Amino acid sequence: DIQMTQSPSSLSASVGDRVTITCRASQSIINYLNWYQQKPGKAPKLLIYAASSLQSGVPSRFSGSGSGTDFTLTISSLQPEDFATYYCQQSYITSYTFGQGTKLEIK
Amino acid sequence: EVQLVESGGGLVQPGGSLRLSCAASGFTFSSYWMHWVRQGPGKGLVWVSRINSDGSTTTYVDSVKGRFTISRDNAKNTLYLQMNSLRVEDTAVYYCARADLSGNYYPFDIWGQGTMVTVSS
Lengths: 107, 121
Known about the structure:
The complex is a heterodimer of chains A (107) and B (121).
Chain A: E1 4-7, E2 10-13, E3 19-25, E4 33-38, E5 45-49, E6 53-54, E7 62-67, E8 70-75, E9 85-90, E10 102-106
Chain B: E1 3-7, E2 10-12, E3 18-25, E4 34-39, E5 45-51, E6 58-60, E7 68-73, E8 78-83, E9 92-99, E10 108-111, E11 115-119
Parallel strand pairs in B: 2-11
Antiparallel strand pairs in B: 1-3, 3-8, 4-5, 4-9, 5-6, 7-8, 9-10, 9-11
């Protein structure tokens, strides 16, 4: 099975900061990597698919990169509404494994 | 509006059964693969099960194999998850999600609001 490991598990940042979250797969998943945002009590929301493609309607301050086993999600200038938990997910094989999540908190 | 609405959650004793439903609207339900994803209290997301567009192919995470059954009724635009032999560790919010098949990467682009399942004596 493919394991997905995110770092850091939590992160404190300020409005306007540039933030990067990392996701590592236990084997190559080419670019079958998706990123989701989840706010408390709400369903996850798709942000990025295929490692770097921005989902329709998602602000351009969100970007993704990487291939193989190492991937990053970058938020170029944090806005108040971006404080949430972020999950990566592989869709390379049927187990559709998620990372453990990165909680982004206000400093 | 494209929408998924789950129902059927509740409190059940260990060993009991529950059937979750997910009503789809605003899109051609029969064209999409569908998934169930769960999230335990304070925990992360765990993929549970998948069904293809005509219901002929299903897949499960190992922890629910033989206990859970995913199905769909395309005439009713509804996805189901039959959960039997429930365990305390099945306690979670259960989400249904649509897989976007447009680019072969299959991200989950539409999610329901979730339904809470609590397994406790």
